[in-house]
Amino acid sequence: MDERTKQLLSLGREHYEKREFDKAEHYLRQVLERDEVKFADVYNMMGVIHHDRGRFEEAQGCFEESLKINPNYTEAALNLAVTYNDLGRYDEAKKIYKAALSRGEESPGQLDPFVKGKIANLHAEVAQAYVDAGMPADAMHELRKAILLCPTFADLRLRLANLYRQTGDLDAARFELEEAVNAKDGYVPAHVALGVVLLAQNKKDKAMERWRQALAIDPENKAAAMYLRMARGIKDTGSMAPVAERKPDDEKK
Question: What would the pLDDT profile of 80-101 be if each residue is shown by its tens digit?
C-alpha cells in the first residue's frame, strides 16, 4: 500500500468514526478506486454509509463484497442481515444472522447472553429516543440491531412491528409479530397486535383467532376483548355495524 492510499484510508476511517459520513465517503471512495488492495472494512464502512442514507441495495452490495474478502467478518454479516431485513428478504436475513452467530460461537471473544441483552436494551433506548424525535426509520434500524443480538426478545419485535404498522408495512409487521409469538407464545401483547395487523389485511377470522388465544392466556385482557367484540360487529362487506345493530348474544359467541 502506498503512502497516498494509507493517508486516504486513515482520513476515511477518522471521519467515519466521527459519523461525518459525507467526508468519510469522499476518502473511502478514493481508496476503492485505487484498486491496489481490497479492504473488507472499507466496504463495510461504505455499506453503513449507504444504509444510513436509505440506499439499501448499494449497502447490500458493499456488505456482500466485504464478506467476499473476509467471510468471517461478523460485523459485515450482521449489517448485511439488517439490510436484507430492510429489503423484505427475511429468510435470507435469518440465514445470514444464524451463520454469523455460528461463527461467533467458534470465536473465543464471543459475547455472553447477559452482555448481548444489555447491548440490545441500549439499542432499544436509542430507538425510543429516535421515536421521540420523530425519526421512525432510525428507530427501526436500532431495533433491528437489537433483535439481531437477542432474537427471542418478543417485546423488541413488538415495538418494531408497531413501527412497521405505523409506516404502512403490514407484511413486515406481521413477520415480526409471528416471530414474537413463536419465541414467546404466552406474550399476550404480541397476539393482540398480530390480530390488529391481520384485520388490517382483511383476515378477520385469523385476527379473531389471535384475540381468542390472547384471552385464553389472559381472560382479563381488555384490549383483546374489545377487538374481538369489534370484529364480531363487522358485516360480511367488511364495514362496521353500528352498535345498535349488534345482537346481545354476539357477546357470548
Answer: 988 888 888 888 888 887 777 6
